[in-house]
Amino acid sequence: MTVIEESRPFAQQLSNVYFTILSLFCFKLFVKISLAILSHFYIVKGNRKEAARIAAEFYGVPQGQGSWADRSPLHEAASQGRLLSLRTLLSQGYNVDTLTIDQVTPLHEACLGDHVGCARILLEAGANVNATTIDGVTPLFNACSRGSAACAELLLQYGAKAQWESCLPSPTHEAASRGHSECLEVLISWGIDVDQDLPHLGTPLYVACVSQQIHCIRKLLYAGANVQKGKNLQTPLHAAAQHSSTEIVNLLLEFGADINAKNSDFERPVDLAAPSSLVERLLLFHEATPSSLCQLCRLCIRNYIGRARLHLVPQLQLPTILKNFLQYR
């Protein structure tokens, strides 16, 4: 009985300690929620300086790093294509490169929404055309993801970088995978490397074959993409055979794809085709039938001219029928 009476004070003290910790946690949570609501109120009212001050004082976010707070009215106007609102907000002094927590700018939003007019206003106001989010996404990537060739052309005119040396998300690969051939055509016209090889994706041609985007495949091949370059040892023909697309397989073979190429598992394209499928029959037929002299000559001439000079073929002093033949037209 005496032992129980002696243990009660200790148990009560322990209970008080837990209660105190819980109280402190709840108070801290309440303060954070209150600050978040207060910051949001200042953003809605347009007082972003006060919101930034709160962020700097309580969250340790430097005020010089753009706007701390989440989507601003500028983001909303850009994403919804509201030109008049966008002009009004900019005239009121809003920072054209206002950032969200994820480093998204209004220009990102305008391009993702295919709002060319809004993108032009932002660029004319000095928006950073190569701004990147925390995921490395640029406005040009958003334009290609949406399929906005007009936005892509506008961004490139203002100095957007079409390709990056690092492994940032690639506008070219995005356009190829989503079948946005018009965006791809714009990028090609600005001199991109159509054989850009990313370790985790491969080449744009390989990505287009995996996604079975035949219009993009045509654009890339016409622009001189290497029909043998894919992802590691996996060629575009491997991808096409695996996805059972006779039209794509025919197109790749026409551009000189090697039917005997082997991947890292020593498999040829025919080994990846579904048994008794049309693709398997086509590959077996092509294996048994030699390429025509016309096709071999065309491939040889195109290789000799080189990818960088293929666009000059129409200027050659040759009959139109021969120029069309060299351009697969």
Automatic annotation (TrEMBL):
PANTHER family associated with the record: ANKYRIN REPEAT AND SOCS BOX PROTEIN 5 (PTHR24136:SF18), SOWAH (DROSOPHILA) HOMOLOG (PTHR24136)
ANK repeats, residue ranges: 69-101, 102-134, 135-167, 232-264
Listed GO biological process terms: intracellular signal transduction; positive regulation of protein catabolic process; protein ubiquitination
Transmembrane segments annotated in the record for this chain: 17-43
Top-level taxonomic group: Eukaryota
Organism lineage: Eukaryota, Metazoa, Chordata, Craniata, Vertebrata
Keyword Transmembrane helix set for record: yes
Residue ranges occupied by any SOCS box domain in the UniProt entry: 277-329
Family the entry assigns: Belongs to the ankyrin SOCS box (ASB) family.
Record key words, sorted: ANK repeat, Membrane, Repeat, Transmembrane, Transmembrane helix, Ubl conjugation pathway
Protein name: ASB5 protein
Pathways per UniProt: Protein modification; protein ubiquitination
